[in-house]
Amino acid sequence: MSWQDYVKQLTDQGLNGAAILGNDGGVWSISDTLTLKAGEGQALANLYKSPSDAFAKGITIAGEKYLVIKADPQSIYGKKGQGGIVTAKTNQGIVVGRYNETVQPGNAALYVEKLADYIRDNGY
Q: Which tens digit of pLDDT belongs to each residue from 14-40?
């Protein structure tokens, strides 16, 4: 499967935006429903260097700032209104999923974390 296939898999599960980034924040693949503004990918990647800082800084994706509700070396989650953002670290990258009120936060986390586990298990 290509990186775009993995992104499509996330959006097919109901997420309204998804991306796979490199550890440097560079975009490997992104859905057409998500647009990263300059520096957002790198800023997210930097949060994984010191996850506890994420609580003070928040996550900004597509110009929207999310309140961080979980941050550890493996995952960083953010919430805004009835939607949110789920990110999960792999060996070489970061899986990003954005959800709205049509997807339960727990399901969004499951989709992103499961894909990240699969990618990690395959060496990426």
A: 999 999 999 999 999 999 999 999 999
